[in-house]
Specification:
- With 131 residues, the protein is of the alpha+beta class.
- It is built from two helices and eight strands; from the N terminus they run βαββββαβββ.
Length: 131
């Protein structure tokens, strides 16, 4: 069995106050891997990644009401794809299989490209991400 060395599936969370959430995440065993704060307002976290043990992880950030990503109190799943082109190819396959695109393509300040789709029954938000 091949062991995955880089996480490719992340639960994604949004917080009103990220700094208030960090002590609990660290107490649960998550470790900071990357945090990108806003230069003008360091309390705003544009993007953060916290690792779980050898190969898991979560992504999180401050809710900025841009219509991208989950709202506070909800979560979504980030599916990290190998290339930028895979975002479009995976979207095409998902739409053909009945998914609904619920966000425009986003190019966040930390780099990459993403969009969000959902299925008809669970309404689970799944973000296709190339980082």
């Amino acid at each position: 069995m091949e062991r995955m060395t880089k996480p490719q599936l992340f639960a994604c969370l949004r917080y009103v106050d990220v700094d208030a959430a960090l002590p609990l995440l660290e107490a649960l065993g998550f470790s900071e891997r990357f945090v990108m704060r806003d230069d003008a307002d360091p309390s705003v976290v544009h993007h953060a990644q916290f690792g779980w043990r050898d190969n898991g992880g979560i992504m999180l950030g401050t809710d900025r009401d841009r219509g991208v990503g989950p709202r506070p109190g909800t979560a979504c799943i980030n599916l990290v794809v190998p290339t930028d082109a895979d975002v479009d190819q995976t979207l095409a396959r998902a739409l053909a299989a009945g998914a609904r695109q619920i966000s425009p393509v986003d190019e966040p300040p930390h780099g990459g490209r993403s969009l969000t789709v959902t299925d008809a029954e669970t309404l689970a938000a799944m973000r296709l991400v190339y980082e």
